[in-house]
Amino acid sequence: MPSEILLKIFSYLDAVNLLCIGCVNRRFYHLASDNFIWVRIYSTAFSPKRSNWKVNSVEKTAVSVNLLSLEDKEAGYWKKEYIAKQIASVKATVAQLLQPVNPYTGLPVKIKEALRVSGLGWVIILRDKSGKEYLTERVHLSVNDTSVSVVWYGKNWPCLATLSTLDLCGVTPVFMDRYKSPTKNGDVRRPRWRSLIAKYSLSDLSESTLMGCDGLIRVFGLSPGLLVGLWKREEELAFVMANLHLHQLMERSILGSATIPYDLPPHSPFLDDAPEYGLHGYQLHVDLHSGGISYLCGTFRNLFSKKGYIENGYMKLVVINFNNNTQHVPLIGKVGLSWRTNIFEGRIESCSIMDVTLLDDSGKPFWCFSSPVCMRLSTSPCDTCDFLGQRYCIDYVDSEGRVHVDLVWIEETEEYFVVNLALYLSVVKINHWFGTEY
């Protein structure tokens, strides 16, 4: 078919379909990048607001020169201009939505609206040992107090024995239709940017990462924040759950590339006006939850730690004290991690998702994470506590710190009480944050 006729046909297409048809072959790519087509799309999308004022001769001249110089522009110039302006427009809108901050969590108040406007979604890419990729769209999404939980499940998982890695990526549409809400799973046919958030090795699914099981599945935890469920009988994938803390989630899900995660900008240390007193005025927001049910959700203020609390490279922040009964709090409901697939659903006892948001004395997020955790029988002796129930503990550790929780099961009321909660902050992290030399 002659190029003139194809150009006429292409002129009736919108930006999304032009990009798609440009992927057919090299000839279609060049024709679908025609400047005359794209300048029309550009001027329609970003034309100035209508005005009753008469256009002056200077503006008329500028328009005519602009149209006459179309052929002088390199091929695809107006396509690139349109894409760049679309992206900048969405980023500006999202940045404005992220400005108001919740004083209790230090996180954006309008995060749900920002997610909707940006069209942000998440996919996992399973890669086998030969390099073949299997992209899976998310099935379920829930926005919690300070995190997002994304779940994938289905019947057509590739064989686990052939898989080597799993990539977690944020995906955003190249173009956003501001007058149309994104569909549940997004339109996979629309062009999308991909931003790598984390890469996991599936060889780490071993006894050391096993978190719990029920009659049907075993669940494994991979850092950061990933939960993988395997069928007990076949040892094949049942579901995958990613737990993403809201702190800098938009940046991590949008600003990275398909192969390299977003690199946080260099941190400028906050000057500590009284380093000899250690840490003071810290605030912790903690949420222990699963399946939309919160077992513990609270904010603890005015936390402090003295220089003398440094031990083994960590500075200790005591949130709930063993010896102060007034600080002990119960867990609400029966603790367990809810899971589901397209066929079955169940619950792993004693497992849940822990979200931690620690703010420094200026209200800035200092340490944030969302991760699956497991409650286990406590084996450590305790000479300072005298409780009449079985003791349990929850532990979490990463490069920035540790969390330790002690609980007691009260048989009479059939509930857990948190009798000790302590954070152990990495001295390396503190020195980097404040420019101190602890």
Automatic annotation (TrEMBL):
It holds the Pfam family F-box-like. Residues 1-41 form the F-box domain. It comes from the Eukaryota. This is F-box only protein 15. One of its GO terms (cellular component) is SCF ubiquitin ligase complex.
